[in-house]
Automatic annotation (TrEMBL), chain A:
Keywords: Membrane, Transmembrane, Transmembrane helix. The keyword Transmembrane applies. This is Permease. The keyword Lipid biosynthesis does not apply. The chain crosses the membrane at residues 16-34, 46-67, 88-109, 135-156, 163-182, 202-224.
Automatic annotation (TrEMBL), chain B:
Transmembrane segments: none annotated. Keywords: ATP-binding, Nucleotide-binding. Pfam families: ABC_tran. One of its GO terms (molecular function) is ATP binding. This is ABC transporter ATP-binding protein. The lineage of its organism: Bacteria, Bacillati, Bacillota, Bacilli, Bacillales. InterPro entries: AAA+_ATPase (IPR003593), ABC_transporter-like_ATP-bd (IPR003439), P-loop_NTPase (IPR027417). Residues 2-225 form the ABC transporter domain.
Length: 229, 278
């Protein structure tokens, strides 16, 4: 019950992410209108699907909730376990709604973007190859991927300012800078990204994302339990 | 109800509390006194589960307290608490949504008594008003333990008087433990029933305020006579002026004589004598 109330409050208190999403769409629409007015159409060109823009909602929320809302929720004497459960509800709902919106873009909205017959609209379903197994599987793959990313961003934001936060930041930079230039290590990175995003095997990708989500959630609970108010 | 058993809390090399044991087992208003950095906030945050003890055990209603398992029946109001920038009445509604036992009518009634504009947004309120809103959120929480850390900071004299009345009303309305940390000692003595004094991370005194009224006094007179009269008593401080001396005692009362003057010691003087002469 408390987790639901926490989630409800979080939905209200991440308005900045909604405004950024709407602002980006607005700017994109203005760009289409200007192109149309000046006859500089984007025929045969490239455009990002609005589905990608909706990622801003979940990503910015995953920063705002731990960075801004956490302390204020704690000042309402919300229990930390209720907070972490509430956060999961937030990201499940966000992932679900954004996946629905992305599916809507994939089936309808992208087709109405003015890129002409030869143009390309990059939708997450096609970019990541998730549409190969049908729309429902693509929806599920998209959903678990977004949920995992939100939990990772949330946890990384939560641990900022602590010694283990700094250590994690250094490790991430070290892994990227060491693994990228060395071919054999690069393969390891590629295989991780393949498993979590690009693999044609939907089951592996879904289980991979869920597995990482569970591990990250446990780490998140530990981090929150140690986080000072 | 609340128990700290051999609790030590370290912040790196600094010690917040040192081998601290106390049990608060009856409802009432507890006044927590101590100098800056004495360990008051550490004590309060350990009870609220905002900190983990480095060693020892903290329990509330028999349940161990730690940062993951914060006690359900404790409401902690931090001195620097910040809230979402929404109308004050919406803050109360939010508190009700988060805690079903939150008494929104009591909160509204108290707000009216303090002339708070419920339609004002939290960030638009003055510092004193924000502290008042924080305090009302705690008082109306209907929790068994309410902890107020420096609640009267930023209050003017009239608001402070109203605040102490509110404390009493709240205490009489439903039995609960209210722990108030403050530096305004004589003011809180009007309403406090028990007194905790912390000094350098250790519990210096835990007593009923009535005991202090009876047992804390000063004896003033010629040094030799006073020393003779107070021999064997618990002397907590002394002040010498020429051949005269004032000794501050916390012990069984003694009778006035022709040679010495015995006068009650105010809570502030008692506190200063106890911890201020280090």
């Amino acid at each position: 019950m408390n987790a639901l109330a926490v989630a409800k409050l979080n939905f209200k208190k991440v308005k900045l992410s909604y405004f950024i999403f709407l602002g980006l769409i607005g700017l994109q629409l203005i760009s289409y209108i200007i192109n149309n007015l000046f006859n500089t159409s984007n025929e045969g060109g490239f455009s990002l699907s609005f589905g990608f823009y909706s990622y801003f909602i979940i990503l910015i929320s995953a920063i705002l909730i731990p960075a801004r809302n956490f302390r204020k929720l704690m000042n309402f004497n919300v229990k930390k376990l209720d907070y972490t459960r509430g956060v999961v509800i937030n990201y499940v709902v966000f992932s679900f709604v954004i996946s629905l919106f992305t599916a809507f873009c994939y089936f309808y909205l992208d087709k109405s973007l003015p890129v002409g017959t030869n143009g390309v609209v990059a939708n997450p379903f096609t970019v990541f190859g998730w549409n190969n197994n049908g729309a429902i599987v693509a929806f599920i793959r998209h959903f678990v991927f977004l949920f995992m990313v939100a939990l990772i961003v949330h946890t990384l934001t939560t641990i900022q300012g602590t010694w283990y936060g700094w250590l994690t930041n250094i490790l991430i930079v070290a892994v990227i800078s060491v693994f990228t230039p060395i071919a054999s290590l690069r393969k390891v990175l590629v295989s991780i990204f393949d498993t979590l995003i690009f693999t044609p095997n939907a089951v592996i990708q879904i289980l991979g994302c869920l597995g990482v989500s569970v591990v990250v959630y446990i780490l998140c609970v530990l981090a929150v339990s140690r986080k000072r108010i | 109800m609340i128990s700290l058993s051999n609790v030590t809390k370290n912040y790196g090399k600094n010690i917040g509390l040192r081998n601290f044991s106390v049990t608060l087992d009856s409802p009432g208003i507890y006044c927590l006194l101590g100098r800056n950095g004495a360990g008051k906030t550490t004590f309060l945050k350990l009870i609220a589960g905002h900190h983990n003890a480095s060693s020892g055990k903290v329990t509330v209603n028999g349940n161990p307290v730690d940062m993951l398992h914060m006690p359900e029946q404790v409401h902690f109001v931090a001195s620097d608490a910040e809230h979402f920038n929404m109308r004050i009445k919406d803050l109360f509604k939010t508190a009700k949504e988060l805690h079903s036992q939150f008494d929104i009518h009591f909160a509204t009634e108290i707000s009216q008594r303090f002339k708070l504009d419920l339609n004002k947004k939290y960030e638009q309120a003055s510092f004193g008003m924000k502290v008042m809103v924080n305090t009302i959120l705690g008082m109306a929480s209907n929790k068994a333990v309410i902890i107020l850390d420096e609640p009267v900071l930023g209050f003017d004299a009239i608001t402070r008087k109203n605040f102490y009345d509110l404390l009493q009303d709240c205490n009489e309305q439903k039995q609960k433990v209210i722990i108030v940390s403050t530096h305004l000692i004589d003011e809180i003595s009007r309403v406090a029933e028990k007194l905790l004094i912390i000094d350098q991370g250790e519990l210096k005194l835990y007593a009923d305020t009535t005991d202090i009224d009876e047992m804390a006094y000063s004896v003033t007179g010629p040094a030799k006579v006073v020393e003779q009269l107070t021999q064997g008593l618990h002397i907590i401080g002394a002040k010498k002026v020429g051949g005269f001396v004032s000794q501050y005692i916390f012990d069984k009362p003694i009778e006035d004589t022709d040679m010495v003057m015995v006068s009650p010691l105010g809570l502030q003087d008692f506190f200063i004598s106890l911890v201020g002469e280090e």
